[in-house]
Amino acid sequence: MGEVAQPPFPRIAVVGLGLIGGSIAFAARRAWPSTHVVAIDREPVLKEAVARRAIDAAAGDLADIGDVDLIVLAAPVRQNIVLLRRIAEHTSPFTVVTDVGGTKRTIVEAATALAEPVTFVGGHPLGGGARGGFEFATASLFVRRPWIFTPHDERGGNVVARLSDFATGLGALPSTMTADAHDRLMALISHLPQLAATALMSDLQRAEVIDAVFDDAGRWRAELMKGRD
User: Fold this and answer.
1) Each residue of 181-200: pLDDT tens digit?
2) Quick one: DSSP state of residue 116?
3) N or C: the chain end with fewer CB closer than 10 Å?
4) Whole-angstrom Cα distance, residue 75 to residue 154?
5) Closest CA to 54 of 129, 127, 136
6) Mean pLDDT throughout 59-71?
7) Rounded CA gap, 15 and 22, in Å?
8) Strand order of the sheet with strand 96-99?
């Protein structure tokens, strides 16, 4: 883990305890044992998280998370946008909000359009695993992995420094860029290769079907020729 002695955010809330959200909870507790972690998710997941000591408390809704310093939106991207729009009703403008989604422009635009002030900085830890879900969450998921932050206004300077300390404490390698630059980068190194791989597999499957048809046709022709001999 990175060496950040004091917790940048003594009280954090994680909304969504999947692989990423759960790993953030575990890593924060390991890096700063005094950090208080509250989470929102389905009841069975929350019970497991409490039993595994990933979190200190469970909450049913944003209104129940109490006074926290950092909220991490770790639900799917579209759900995070909906949650972001509700956060101003339940938190102080001094509470820092970030997310972990793989695309940034849409949620940054949503944050900019909020009527109530919310201190939001988009984030994307480039950590993952072969399988998702809280059961596979681990405190070491972010070690030596990039963690990109996408500040969108002048208020982001000090907040980004704290978020960078947070990511460093979890073992990650933080950096910053614009939301547009992030999404272009991800399109090149992640989304485009995935589309290419999907297309290739589709072509291979079609080739297998065609080969199978020709094989069957060959067998049928052989059987017909036997009947004529």
Assistant:
1) 999 988 887 654 555 555 55
2) S
3) C
4) 27
5) 136
6) 93
7) 10
8) 57-59, 36-40, 11-15, 70-73, 96-99, 119-125, 146-150, 173-176
